[in-house]
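INTERNAL TRANSFER SHEET
From: sequence group
To: structure group
Subject: L-ascorbate metabolism protein UlaG (Beta-lactamase superfamily)

Please process the attached sequence and return the structure record in the designated field. Keep the field labels unchanged so the import script can parse them.
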Amino acid sequence: MLLTLGIIVGLVGVYYVFMNVYPIFGRKPSRDEMKKFAKSPQYGLDKFENPVPAMMNMSFSTTLGILRDMIKGSPNRRPATSLAMDKPQFIGNGDTSVTWFGHSASLLMIDGKSLLLDPMFGRTPSPFPWLGKNRYSNGIPFEIAELPHIDAVILSHDHYDHLDYGSIMKLKDKVNRFIVPLGVSGHLIRWGVPAAKIEEHDWWEEFTYQGLELACTPANHFSGRSVNDRGATLWCSWVIKGKQSNIYFSGDSGYTPHFKHIGDKYGPFDLTLMECGQYDERWADIHLMPEETVQAHLDVKGKVMLPIHWGAFTLAMHDWNDPVTRAVRAAQEKGVEIVTPRIGQTITLRGSDIGNYTKTDWWVQA
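Return from structure group:
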């Protein structure tokens, strides 16, 4: 019994040391920070919560079904070959432009400002990035050193497929400001980002940054980077409004009335970057199904929709190109203008019209 107890205590000790020494996990909020978070309407019982409860069906039979689907796999859950990439354009011409890098990582140029949205540029979304398969494109279409100086990095939440330690370490000296939801600053500070360069926001907070009008808006999702920090930090979507364009970035979310509330308050939007991928009926409360992606775009009063959160990693059981195929079909059925750029392709928004964009179903040939 003493030996068993000693082994258990030793394992707990190793786990505690590892969690506190290994930087990729980030940092949980302190007690003082949690007291500040308690002022947020989204905070309760020592964690952030969704107004609409987000449930994952994790019954025994459902869990067995997920395991069966994962083991069974599918020949089309990854592309047969590495996805081709375009060389992005980092010098703007004054118009609003967006460059999608796969999954949710994008560069938004608006009113002469450069904003990186959820810049996950790593090989795999994991606390152990040397494990697992590389992203579908086998890299990104540029070296981080090639990026212009970034006015702001805007983060939606702290999951590994959105907040990447390796990417932040390479980016942090090129960025003026990190704009994040409540609690996420702790990760960045642990990774060497000065606190003075970070600002945190709660849902429905409005503020300006270098002439841009921004609002931190709701999403129905969750957060966490380890086994005991679910809900320790907030998740969100973002409204980014300049003189020329009004942009909506959905982050990750299930479908709830919050999209209509955002549209009523801040719409219409010239362009929406809407989550579309890594979905399953068993976790539909926290990720949009492709048809819901199109409906959410309509709810926020979007004009042109760019589907994101696909094209880089296999995080669900569907075919890798199923999200865009279904989203395009749903958009056509509802008369929604949808743009599907290749990875690295820079598209320009002139007013509410896409300028230099050629529509192709490139994912069919990939």
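Handover comment: The chain has nine helices and 17 strands. The CA atoms of residues 74 and 139 lie 23 Å apart.
Transfer complete.
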